[in-house]
Predict the structure of Pseudouridine-5'-phosphate glycosidase.
Amino acid sequence: MRIHPEVADALTARRPVVALESAIISHGLPRPDNLRIAREIEAAVRSGGAVPATIAIVGGEPHIGLDDTSLQRIAESDTVVKVSVRDAAVLAARGGDGATTVASTAHFAAAAGITVLATGGLGGVHRGARDSWDESADLMTLSRTGVLVVCAGVKSILDVAATLERLETLNIAVIGYRTDWFPGFYLADSGHRVGWRVDTPEQAADVLRARRRLGTDGYGLVLANPIAAEDEMDRTLHDQVLAAGLAAAEASGVRGKDLTPFLLDFFHRETRGASVAANIALVLSNARLAAEVAVADAAGG
Ligand code: PSU
Ligand code: MN
C-alpha cells in the first residue's frame, strides 16, 4: 500500500483522517463533473478539520490518499474498473487501475489505521434478491471491518427493509444522525426506523470509544445522515424514475456489479441532473460530518 505523505503524517500524529471511496467518482457520478466533485468532496473533509484519504488502486498499487494526477486518472481514464474486495488482488497482479467501492475502501482504510469513511450511499440488498441473490459485498465486508461509514442511507434503488435486516444479522449498528428514521438517499426519509440516534459528532465519537472498550470494534458501524430538506429530490419524480429505471434494467438484462452504476446513470439522465445535484449535496454533507466525527474521535484520545 502507498500511503500519501500527508495522510501518513496525520496518522502518525493521531490527527483526524477520513477515508473516501473512489467508485462514486469513476462509476457513480457523470463525467466531466466527477473530477470537480471529487475535489469538492476532499475540500469538504478539509473544511471539517480532517485530512482526506481518497482510496483507489493505481498502477496495481492500493493508494491511501491520491495526488491530483492520480485523482484525475481515476476520474477520467476509460480503463478504470470498479473494484470490490475480491477484485483487488486480481487487479493488483496485472497492474491495472481500479476505483474502490465502500467494501474495498473499508478494507484498505482499516489496514491503514483509518476509522472513519464517507460515501454517498452504502450498497445493500437489491430488489429481487430472493431470486438474483444480489447483495452488495459492502454488507459482508462491514461485518468484519471496523470502520464507521457515514452515508445517506442506502440508495433507493435497493430493497431498504431487507438491507436493514441484513445489517442487523451482520452485527453492523445503524445510528441516525439527528433522526430516528433511516434516510432514503435522494430523500431524507426511507420510511423505516433506525434503532439508535446521536445528535452531535461527539456522541458519535463516544460510540467509537465505547466500542474499543467493549471489543466490538471489529464490526462496522453506519452513521446515517439524511440529505438536507432543501436538497431533497421531488418525491413524485423520484418514484416515477425509480420504477422506470428498474424496468429498464430488467429489460436490458443488466446484472452484477453493473447494476448500481446503470441505475444511478439512468436517474441522472432521466431527472436531467436533479438526482446528480442531490447526490452531490448529500455526499458533501457526509464528508463534512465524517470529518467532524474524526475530529471528535481524535480529540477524545
Ligand atoms: N454511493 C453513491 N454512488 C455510488 C456508490 C455508492 O452515492 O456509486 C457505489 C459505492 O462504491 C458502493 C457501490 O460501494 O456503489 C455498491 O455497488 P454494488 O451494489 O455493486 O456492491
Ligand atoms: Mn451486486
Summary: The two ends are 26 Å apart (CA to CA). The first strand starts at residue 2 and ends at 3.
